[in-house]
Design brief:
3 domains; 553 residues; Copper Amine Oxidase, Chain A, domain 1; 22 strands; alpha/beta; five-stranded antiparallel sheet; Alkaline Phosphatase, subunit A
Length: 553
């Protein structure tokens, strides 16, 4: 009775009680764009918003602000704090995963499992939203990022591994998964075999070629900038590397030509890297670069009328906090921070490229600050400072005397920046707080409330009309080799040095199967599949399409 009276009182006062959107009843759309700012806590968003407002008084709000509609509880299968691999894997597959796993079912951690995990499915590759969109819906697919392409978040969309560091297993899968548009970093990981495969399948390939990237008229393309990750947005030369916003626009331009629609994942990769390094400049400026990419996607979606947007971090990193007390003005809090023209990493490159005499002038020019004698002494004793007048073996570790002293040059500069501002970090690692959720739907007003990370997958699947389809696709495309070829003559030939094992099936036709590609040889002829083959050495198992059994008969 009391509850009823309370409700009547609220309605009499004209107060609307919000009802969460039912993610199971969401209206499907033609296109979905998922945007992930890696390692972005809510504190990072707040810091970026304040810095933008200080720098641009007419811009108090971010592009994402009107669409914030909930929070997300992100976690690993066995604990509340995750890394990029298992947390993005949740968005891609709908299953919790464990540290380091890339779109792969975790092993059970017993009582530590947050949700019960089936131990019989351990190490099973799990079909991703991107793979299902291409295979089942004939949609175009794309990946945009600023890290190297086999890094955890883009890897989660188009590859499978229990070890996120095995780029030699992840990179070929991403190449052979026939993603239509791939834009980001990582030239060093596109080898000759991969490049030949892409060329033979009609891709335009651009390596550190911004003119080619901008002028290419074809629909399928890979454009990579930098041997590893790209530059932070504040540090990049716009004549050499495009912004995340420009790459997002290019991907949308190409993918939207597909009459069946598209799925695109865009990652603001380096927010996480800056937060790991406790660099407040890199943290807020790269999030603002990400927010510009969100603006590009949202503008397209509103004009297109058939596109849904989901914006959500994978986890928090660093735990940045705006400190200083209530007596400080906006100018007091953000003037110095906003005055830096380079990130800590960008300043480190400049400092190591110029004579030691230029050190004070560099900080005056790019940071607007005058270095103290103690800060200069910290540089001289930093082992990462190439221009120090002190021989490396004579440099002293003075960390106990002052927190500034750091053997990492980037770490030292990050410390100087933080000391000169009111930003404090709680950790160099990941954090477990809830994340923001922003979303746009062309036909629905969204109030999503608090969702678990695996529920984000259900929401995306429902947007794409893939309800319940991922498990069936996993069963048909990632079946265990000994079940597919049961009763047949087959053998696994061990790998030679730095190579991969080969599965030989001796049916009426001889089949040779190499892992991490979509190519099998049948009587010596290459057959191209519509999904990749995965090998897991921990179980000595190939995971491949059930339909391969018919090819050998």
């Amino acid at each position: 009775m009391k509850k009823l009276l309370s409700l009547l009182l609220l309605f009499s006062l004209g107060i609307c009680i919000a009802k969460a959107t039912d993610i199971e009843k969401v209206k499907p759309v033609k296109n979905v764009i998922l945007l992930i700012p890696d390692g972005t806590s809510l504190q990072t968003v707040s810091l970026a918003r304040w810095c933008q407002w200080y720098q641009n008084p007419d811009k108090p709000h971010l592009n994402i602000d009107p669409y914030i509609c909930g929070t997300v509880r992100s976690f690993c299968s066995n604990g509340p704090v995750g890394d990029s691999a298992p947390t993005t894997s949740c968005y891609m597959t709908g299953y919790p995963s464990i540290a380091g796993f890339v779109s792969t079912h975790p092993y059970s951690a017993g009582d530590n499992d947050i949700y019960p995990m089936d131990p019989d499915k351990a190490f099973q590759p799990l079909t991703t939203v991107l793979e299902a969109s291409r295979i089942l819906k004939n949609k175009a697919t794309g990946l945009v990022f600023v890290c190297e392409f086999p890094h955890a978040t883009p890897a989660d969309c188009a590859s499978h591994s229990y070890n996120r560091g095995r780029y030699n297993h992840i990179a070929p899968q991403m190449i052979h998964n026939d993603v239509d548009v791939v834009l980001g970093g990582g030239i060093a990981y596109l080898n000759e075999e991969g490049e030949n495969y892409l060329k033979n399948n009609g891709y335009g390939i651009f390596k550190d070629d911004i003119k080619g990237f901008r002028s290419y008229e074809g629909d399928k393309m890979w454009a990579l900038f930098g041997q590893g990750e790209m530059e932070y947005d504040l540090d990049r030369n716009p004549e050499e590397q495009p912004s995340l916003a420009e790459m997002t626009a290019k991907a949308i331009e190409k993918l939207s030509k597909n009459e069946n629609g598209f799925f695109l994942m865009v990652e603001g990769s380096l927010v996480d890297h800056a937060a790991h390094g406790n660099d407040p400049v890199g943290t807020f400026s790269d999030f603002l670069a990400f927010d510009k990419a969100c603006g590009v996607a949202l503008d397209f979606a509103k004009k297109n009328g058939e596109t849904a947007i989901v914006i959500v971090p994978d986890h928090g990193t660093g735990g940045p906090a705006i400190t200083g007390g209530s007596n400080l003005s906006k100018r007091d809090l953000f003037r110095t921070l906003s005055g830096f023209k380079r990130t800590a990493a960008g300043l480190a490159k400049i400092v190591n490229s110029r004579p030691v005499e230029d050190l004070p002038a560099i900080f005056k020019e790019y940071g607007g600050i005058k270095l103290t004698d103690q800060e200069i002494d910290a540089f001289y004793n930093c082992k990462g400072y190439d221009k120090s007048p002190i021989p490396k073996d004579q440099r002293k570790d003075k960390k106990e005397e002052n927190v500034l002293y750091n053997n990492s040059l980037t770490g030292l500069i990050s410390g100087i920046i933080s000391n000169r501002t009111t930003i404090e970090f709680s950790t160099h690692g990941h954090t477990g707080e809830e994340l923001f959720l922003a979303a746009y739907h062309p036909k629905e007003d969204l109030q999503l409330g608090m969702l678990d990370n695996i529920e984000i997958n259900r929401y995306i699947c429902n947007l794409l009309g893939l309800n319940g389809a991922l498990d069936a696709l996993t069963s048909s495309h990632f079946a265990k080799h000994y079940e597919v070829f049961k009763g047949m003559d087959y053998d696994i030939i061990p790998a030679e040095k730095d190579g991969n094992p080969t599965l030989i099936v001796n049916g009426k036709k001889k089949m040779e199967i190499q892992p991490f590609t979509n190519i099998v040889k049948v009587d010596g002829k290459d057959i191209q599949l519509n999904s990749v083959i995965v090998y897991v050495d921990r179980t000595n198992t190939f995971y491949l399409p059930q339909a391969l059994a018919e090819l050998s008969k």
